[in-house]
């Protein structure tokens, strides 16, 4: 009995120590799970445009937790190593010049952190060509000596042949998507012809894009001799248009322009409604004639790059620039289009608030065209049927009570962009009112709903550009056939989207794009050598008809 009492007495200190250990452990764990102070939470999430550090994809900062629990655990054990994602190349494989001040245009070097890693590497020749172009633009940009010399020629009202610096001036047409289609095409034309690209920037595009070329500007200066471009002189039927001058036999393709009396500039009308004479621009024998004009003014709302691949004199150069044909817009768009900090703030704030923590991001872009409308219910069915059939989104459990989603799994984020709210509301309610068959939580978001397209409103265009970029950050993209808005997103993101088709006589609600390139909607069918219309989609292997169009004159680049 005495031995038992002694044993019990000896055990009491051990019980006291164990009890104290448990109390201490509870205190530590309690302190570790308290809410963060409000001021720390506020400081941990600030507006992205305040500085480069604020566009990080990281979650809000939390205080470091004591992994040894106040010394209760031994540090002698090895921790399992977690994989660290390598930093993405902010220069995009050398596509971007490092010569810029990063804070002045945050999007230029930060976009790479948001896009999926690209499998499309720019060719060494393209990188060399871009650096050469940047040097040319610095020599010939606004208010340089060589630019001033070219301005003197323009004021003389006659062309004296090519100068050391020759220009193509881009003029806007259509909505933002169409404008960006034509801008990229015009830049490609500029680098193929050693011309300097300048922009007549409309009021509704001011402060939307950063300067893309170091040490110079791409905007026409305010003292440019021609003040107004939204006049008859710079639209179809203009007396100064190439097409009109051809019809009036004042110019002809293949003419010897050495001693000819030529106007000071040539206007190129390449919009969707260009007539047959205007479309002679795409003829091979027209290209030497254009070299006689130091100033070309080009208006288009089309992605006309595919037709440049049908001009044989450009073949060798284009092959070296773009051995991968479907990456033309992908590379040139990422090189040229950088939202200003004010626009980038829209993008990053929305991304961090709604999309950053998702395990997968699905972009859905819905466009209903006023000149070919589709009833809302029919278009909604196409979108839902597409996403379910192609397993982009999970189906729902309709006849059973809503179950809890699988705990501990990050949600799937669905970003809807549309002028209307109906598509967003239907998708949101679908996954709010019913559980998914996979147990995934589905969050549905829509940044804006303008109801009508307001192309000439800067705030409208700012939101449109921000949403194009947000869509380009998707893992999977669903777009509307024929929509240039969707083309911009897929090109920037390097994505081959699922294209929702019109419900008219379609066996499938959508079709997977075989190329991430945009479509040249209204490409010319006329063959200049044959003197008749031909099927341009069968001339070369890499230029074919677009998958999202029923008519046969749309052209697109493929590999």
TrEMBL record:
Highest rank taxon of the organism: Eukaryota
Please classify the protein's predominant subcellular localization into one broad category.
Golgi
Keywords from UniProt, A to Z, are: Cell wall biogenesis/degradation, Glycoprotein, Glycosyltransferase, Golgi apparatus, Transferase
* A biological-process GO annotation: xyloglucan biosynthetic process
| A single GO molecular function term of this UniProt record | galactoside 2-alpha-L-fucosyltransferase activity
Q: Does the keyword DNA damage apply?
A: no
Read off the InterPro entries from this record.
Answer: XG_FTase (IPR004938)
Say if the entry is tagged with keyword Transcription.
no
Report the EC number(s), separated by commas if there are several: 2.4.1.-
Tell me the membrane topology, using the record's own terms. Single-pass type II membrane protein
Indicate where this protein resides in the cell. Answer: Golgi apparatus, Golgi stack membrane
Give the record's GO CC terms.
Golgi cisterna membrane
Give the family this protein belongs to, as stated in its UniProt record. Belongs to the glycosyltransferase 37 family.
- What does the function comment of this entry state? May be involved in cell wall biosynthesis.
Could you identify this protein by its name?
Fucosyltransferase
What is the species listed in this Swiss-Prot or TrEMBL entry?
Musa troglodytarum
